[in-house]
Amino acid sequence: MINYWIGVASKNHVLLGIQDGFCQLCHGKKAPLIKMKKGDRILYYSPKLDRNDTQPYQKIIAVGTVVDEEVYSFEMAPGFVPFRRNVVYEEGLKEVTLVALNQLTEWTTQRSKLRFGHFEIPVSLYQSIYHLMKEEN
Q1: Arithmetic mean of pLDDT, 79-94
Q2: pTM for this predicted structure
């Protein structure tokens, strides 16, 4: 059974993951990654462009599929060794703003979970968001 997730990270961090084919959640914690399984889908919400920014960004910016069962550590900097999962990201999708998301009734029941950094969503909400991402610009 495929599960559907939202991960929260700054856009710049998500772009690193897209470039190198991984996801990393909750400042590199292992626990959220273990919850996901091969074939699961993840949408990334970026509250800011960069983690140090004060200006909001507030968009769903990426969608990917977990490609294997491995959770692994990776040294990003001396003393910082976060955990990751391999993910293949789709190309050619548009970003979806928080304003557009707020038009989805199901989103309004889920959005308070963003503060957790990673949470499961119903397939119907995933499909609604994915549809918005595939719409013509």
Answers
A1: 95
A2: 0.92
